[in-house]
Each structure stands twice: as structure tokens, then as C-alpha cells.
Amino acid sequence: MKGLFIFGEIKDVRQSGKKFSVRNFCFSLLQKRAKYFSGRNLVCFCMLFIFTSSGLLMSEGIPLKRLNDFAKKIEQVRSEEMGYPVNQNTHLKEFYEWYYKSKLYNVSLNNVGDPQQPSIYPMNTHEFENEVIKFFAPLYGFSEEEAWGIVTHSGTDGNMHGMYFGAKNLLGKTKQLPIVYVSEEAHYSIKRIADLQNLEIRLIKTDETGKMIISEFEKALDPSKPALVVIAMGTTFKGAIDDMEAIDEVLNRKKPVAVFRHVDAALFGGYLPFTEHKKLVDRRVGHFDSIAVSGHKFFGFDEPMGIFITTKEVKDQTNPFKVSYLNEAVPTITCSRNAISALKFWWKVKKTGYEGFEQQAKAILENARYLEEQLNKIGYKAWRNPYSNTVYFHRPSDKIMKKYALAPEFDERLGGKMAHIVVMQHNTRKFLDEFIKDLKAEGTPEPSHLMEKDVETKPKHWH
Ligand SMILES: Cc1ncc(COP(=O)(O)O)c(C=O)c1O
Predict the structure, then answer these.
(1) What are the tens digits of pLDDT across the range 256-279?
(2) Ligand 1 centroid distance, CA of 264 (Å)
(3) CATH 3.40.640.10 spans which residues of the chain?
(4) Rg value, the chain, Cα
(5) Dist. CA 266 → ligand 1 center (Å)
(6) Which residues of the chain does CATH 3.90.1150.10 include?
């Protein structure tokens, strides 16, 4: 009887032309059938109505329970994540509150075009993007007059612009495509981009710390061809910084026909300018032509983004492809660009400021030093490069690797299987202590086990 009654009700809601939802269904029950219910049943239905109206179960066809479960799971994983260079302290609540109040979710924004040129398309945040670049350019040694830059989709997008602008710059000057020189421990995006641009790439051997071996660079350098040198400012696994001064010395002595230096400072470019080691990312010292930094790594954003900075002179060497409907001002690789990320970056710069970033940089470096000490104290062989927040060590059990989302690596010179922790703002001392406690309970790994090579998953046709 009850089943038939509810079935009839669902049919009624469907036939009423309203979209079927638990909310509409309950509403209809309450409106039309309240008279059939005893007081207790009515209370139950009222509660169901309030529950569903509040959007906890279902909102106009969106299964909110599934989404809420997912969000809960992510929140749990968040605090234990320490194998990747991402600051999970995003602190964007106020931004989203403002965004919601401003009703900007009603419009589609797009930063297409050159932010420094007037745009025919008005729905952009170029003015905020320019202020972000204005804040960072001097921190990397670019003068306000010479600097040109954008808020990118990611660190890789910044590398893409650096290598594309670099290659076109060198081609324009010499009528020859350059050879790319980069350390073999640099991020794989450099190889990907060289592959994409059909550029010859020479991978330079690294020492045990992950730094490019300068004598190997000198051996590989072909002075008859233009050189596109990509400098690793913090390699992904060991956090090594290539010696820019030594690279410069070789370039000045060997004198290739032309040189372009791009710095991949995805993570380190975020914090180094706020430390006493700021000279390492200063173009007036390192003579680089462009730099790429990720936004979601040190700065802590809830989605990938980054910054790319070069000079106006370099930018002007690229082909704008005369897009008349966009004011002939599109030097960027992608047409559409994220306007909200520029707005968020601006918000974060205003909210945190130089001193805020300075404190965060200090904290992650101190905590990284602490972690290295604690690991060595319990007999876990651990290393850390100077100026680095990345601690690498002999690989623990699979259980620990999984629990803390640690990234694996293999280096025979250091004993074989390795793991690393990139100490970010959300990795507190308390949390690092818990990690150490887990490792201590497990004991140090067997040297013979560490030397067992990881299974190669590379298909045969890759090279
Ligand atoms: C050294 C280095 N360069 C580039 C990247 C790529 O940055 P993104 O993930 O922002 O594209 C990474 C990412 O981990 C990196 O470690």
C-alpha cells in the first residue's frame, strides 16, 4: 500500500513537468498528502525535506553525497602528503568568499593576448596579471622597464615559453636551430618540450648530488651551433642547483655562435628570492634570459599555475602571427589563458606579501634541515643539497611509501632505491616527528634489498 502510494507520488512529480529530484518529491508529498500521515510520519518527512533541501544529499541532479565523500577523503590524504613539491596550505577561503559575493562566477573571463598590450577582448584580468609580474620581476633581477611576463598554466607552460622563445630568438640571430643542453636530472618537461620542438637535446651527466658536471657540459658543447642552455634551479628529486657561474665561464670561453639561458625554477624560484640566497635566482648575477616558476608549488594554490618572465626584447622576437581580432598581440603559445589564476595570484601576493613569503621560506628550510638530522639520527642515510627543502634518503617499505605518498627513485651511487620528502608549508614538525617514529619502528632497510632494481615499465620504442 505504502509502496504504491510512493510510486504514485513519483509519477505525479514526473508528470507535473518539474524535474524529478528527492527535494521535489518530498515537497509534493508534503503539499498534497500531508492529510494521510500520522503526526510521527509527518515529522519524518519534514526532516527528510529539510535534509534534502539543505543540499546534503542531492542538489538538482548532482549526487552531493558522492562529492562530499570525495572531499572528505581528499582532506584526510592532504595532511599526509609529503612526497611532492606542493604547498597544501592554500588559504584561499577569503578569495572564494569574495569571488562568490562578486558574482564573477556568472561570467567567463579569459586572459588571451599580451597582458601588456591593450586588448580588444575586455573580459580579462590583465591589470592584475601585470601587477603579479611587476611584483616578481625585480625579485629575479629584471628591471621594470625590460621585464615582460605572464601568469602561466604551470611550470611546464613556463618552460615551454622559455624554450620556444629561446629557440626562436637563436634562430632569428643565427638562422640555425639551437642544441638544448640540460642536466640529465632536470625535469622531464625539458625533454618533452625539446621533443615537441624537434630540437636536438644533449643530456649532461650529473654528480651524486644531482648537479650538472661542468666538464661534461664543456665536452658536450658544440660552439658552431647556437646553445639553448636550460639551468636546473632545483632538480625534481634531489633539489640540486646547477652552477650558473661555472656554466657561464664555459660559455664565455667556448663562445658558441649564440646563447640563450632559460632557468627552470619550478619550486626553488618560489622561495629562494625570499631567503639570504636570493642571488641564486638573480639575473644580474646569473645572466639568464628567462625563468619559469610554478605557482602551486611554493605559493600554495588550489590548481596548477605559474609565472614566466623574460625581457620585452626576447618577447618581441617571437612571431605574433598577426591575429587582427586580438589586436595583433598574441605572443603566447596558447590562445586562451586562465584569468582566474592571475586574480588568485594577485590576491595571494597582496595577502601574504614579501614578509609572509620570507617566513614561509625560512620555515620550510628549517624543517627540511630538522628532517635530515632526524633521519640520520635513526640511522637512515639522508642527504639534502644546500638551499634545498628536499631531503632524499634510502627507500622505506612500500607501506610507508604509500602512507606518505612518497616518490621513488633509484641511484646506484647512493646505494640504490631512494625516496624523498619535499618539505612544504603543511609538513609541520609534529608531522615530521610522526613520520620519523614510523620509520624508526620499521628499522633501516637492508642494503641488498635497496640494490634490487625497480621494474622497468618503459615500452621498447621509447628512447
Ligand atoms: C624542476 C621542475 N621543473 C618543472 C616541473 C613542472 O612543473 P609543473 O608541474 O608546474 O608543470 C616540476 C614539477 O615537479 C619540477 O620539479
Answers:
(1) 999 999 999 999 999 999 999 999
(2) 8
(3) 95-351
(4) 27
(5) 5
(6) 354-450
Cell numbers describing residue 80: 599526509
Residue 27 pLDDT: 55
CA distance 94 to 232: 35
Q: Which of 264, 390, 392 to mutate to test the pocket of ligand 1 (most atoms within 8 A of CB)?
A: 264
Query: What CATH superfamily classification does 354-450 receive?
Result: Aspartate Aminotransferase, domain 1 (3.90.1150.10)
C-alpha cell at position 232? 636546473
Residue from 152, 163, 211, 236 to probe ligand 1 pocket by mutation (most atoms less than 8 Å from CB): 236
Task: Return the best residue to mutate from 154, 160, 182, 294 for the ligand 1 pocket (most ligand atoms within 8 A of CB).
Answer: 294
Nearest to 23 by CA among 62, 45, 51, 52: 52
- 270 CA to centre of ligand 1 in angstroms: 12
Q: Please give the pLDDT value at position 385.
A: 96
Q: Which of 297, 409, 424 to mutate to test the pocket of ligand 1 (most atoms within 8 A of CB)?
A: 297
Give mean pLDDT, residues 361-374.
97
Domain 95-351 bears CATH identifier 3.40.640.10? yes
Query: Can you give the pLDDT at residue 344?
Result: 98
As separate numbers, helices (DSSP H) first and strands (DSSP E) second, the chain gives: 17, 11
Length of the chain: 463
In this prediction, residues 329-334 reach a mean pLDDT of 85
Q: Please tell me the distance between residue 298's alpha carbon and the centre of ligand 1 in angstroms.
A: 11
Cα of 183 to ligand 1 centre, how many Å? 15
Q: What is the distance between the alpha carbons of residues 242 and 206, in angstroms, rounded to a whole number?
A: 9
- Residue found under cell 634570459: 289
pTM recorded for the entire structure: 0.86
Q: Return the ligand 1 atom nearest residue 305 CA.
A: 10
Cα distances (angstroms) measured from residue 141 to each of 90, 144, 147, 295: 27, 9, 9, 19
Cα 414 to middle of ligand 1, angstroms: 24
Q: Are 345 and 133 in contact (CB under 8 A)?
A: no
Largest distance between two CA atoms of the chain: 95
Neighbours of 182 (CB within 10 A): 25
How many angstroms does the Cα of residue 12 sit away from the middle of ligand 1?
56
Ligand 1 binding pocket (C-beta < 6 A) is 85, 154-156, 187, 189, 234, 236, 264, 266-267, 294, 304, 306
**DSSP letters for 260-287:** EEEEE-TTHHHHGGGSTTGGGG-HHHH-
Cα 106 to Cα 61, 80, 93, 99, 429: the distances in Å are 20, 36, 19, 10, 42
